[in-house]
Amino acid sequence: MPLSEPKIDVVTELPPVATASAPAASDTDVYAVHGADPEVLAYAMAKYSRSALSMRESLKEISSQRAEQFLNTFYFQYGHRSIADLAHLSFAIEKLSLLAAIELVDEQRWDGQERSTRYQNFKKSGWFTPGFDGDGARRAEYTAQIEALFAAYERISQGAFEHLKSRIARPEAMKEDAFDRTLKARAFDVARYLLPLAANTSLGQIVNARTLETQVSRLLSSEFAEVRLLGEKLRQAAAGAAWQVHGDALKALADKIKHAAPELADEAIALLEREVHVSPTLVKYAAPNVYEIESHKALAHAAQEWMAGAAIASAPVVDLVEPDAGADALEIDLATSLLYPHCHYSFRQLRDRMRELSAAQHGEIIALGVAHRGRHDELARAFSAGQALRFDILMDIGGFRDMHRHRKCIQLRQGYTTAHGFDLPEYVEESGMRAEYDRAMQTACNAAHKLGHNSELTGGELDIDPAAQYLLPLGVRCRAMFKMDFAEAVYIADLRSQPQGHFSYRRVAWEMYRAVARQYPALRGLFHTTDIAEPVDPLKR
């Protein structure tokens, strides 16, 4: 049957075109909102789905009590957890160890900023000391080792600075103090390898209430006592009275009103001195995550059982593990990803072992990953599997902290161990400080293993007691899997290979590019990665 000819509408008169001088009419109202408590604001935003009121009207009629009642009903009883995404909270977390900071920021939905090891002397920060269950001898040994590391940190920093100053001429246009500051920053880049995980830092974070709830729950589930206490302090800070930036000024104003206008005093003072509680409702039930705790035990035992004590195979700095083929590719990836954070093997070595197992055995491992999952628990991060680009990266802990900021990818980090050795920063060899550096690093690693060796831990001989892990310097290597799409790989490789970056992650970024270029040569032209072999001017970094 022949098709009929299409009907064509002929337009004889075009509508007027909106121009800059004659904009199209619009009733859209756009305004910023300030001054509402985070949970009240979240309630007001959530009301858009159920009410025709404007934001102004909603906020005028909502009290904190009504917000709490609403959140108790819809967030906790009905499980509408996206409501908590609307409440954004700011926190200052100060004087916590580098180890605790790594645990704290390990969220995919996280924004914040931490003290920089490049621009600040961490010798002034002090350090965290675990309890050691009241063992005074272990505590004294720990303190001596920490002091030795900080002394080495100071000597290496000063030595690197003097070396750089002796070989780099100051440009005439550059002032002496700016020249020294720049070289000291480069020297801190070298010396940071000796900073122990116990070193104190500070950071600020801005997170939504849902992220805070999962963050607190995860921290409360940690093997580190400091991290568990940090989780409790975060929960208390969210529920308690927030620090008011203008608190002193508001109090002074309230005092003036008492004398100038007594008839207004009660109402005005109540408003001026009102305490703000940023999230008294949304995180009040955050508790240790049984799913995470029990899954760790089960999967660590499974990794030990399936690998049967195999030696850790050597691996490159960056290993782009090629995608699996076949009907069971996703199951193999899931089983490997689930076991990976609970052992010290490379992803490739672990994946090769999983390939030898049957489909039923893959299913057993995957089942362990959900066996303890509760009704409101999100699937473990390891279930975010199936990405084409999987970079297994073996780098120093300090460099990992920089790479850790890339949150548009799935990161699976293994525990700290001395099994992978430590890295050598640039300038140490040529400045004649190699022997001192090696001695300080090796002494710290030996002390951590001696002080914290526990053969009954899940990883056997390679595991170190949580308290002793604080002794490990940032130069010790750690292993982490980064799974991502192609766009993120290009972004990381291009950004992190730039000359102003730290030499640790510049090397990783360059190797990421090379790995993709080898596996997908037709795509190499899409990168704008800087070759790390090109000379770098230390004054422009």
Outline the biggest β-sheet.
4 strands, antiparallel
Order the strands across the largest sheet as they lie in space.
Answer: 4-5-7-6
User: What structural category arises from helix and sheet content?
Assistant: alpha+beta
Q: How many DSSP H or I helices? A: 19
Could you please say which CATH topology of the domain at 290-420 and 475-540 applies here? Alpha-Beta Plaits
Please characterize this protein's 3D structure.
There is one protein chain. Among the domains are: 38-86; 290-420 and 475-540, Alpha-Beta Plaits (2-Layer Sandwich), CATH 3.30.70. It has 19 helices and 7 strands. The protein has helices at residues 38-46, 55-61, 64-77, 98-104, 136-167, 176-191, 209-220, 225-239, 247-260, 262-272, 290-307, 329-339, 347-355, 359-368, 397-403, 434-452, 466-469, 486-496, 503-519, and strands spanning 88-97, 111-114, 200-208, 318-320, 389-396, 410-413, 477-484. It starts with 37 loop residues before the first helix and ends in a 22-residue tail after the last helix.
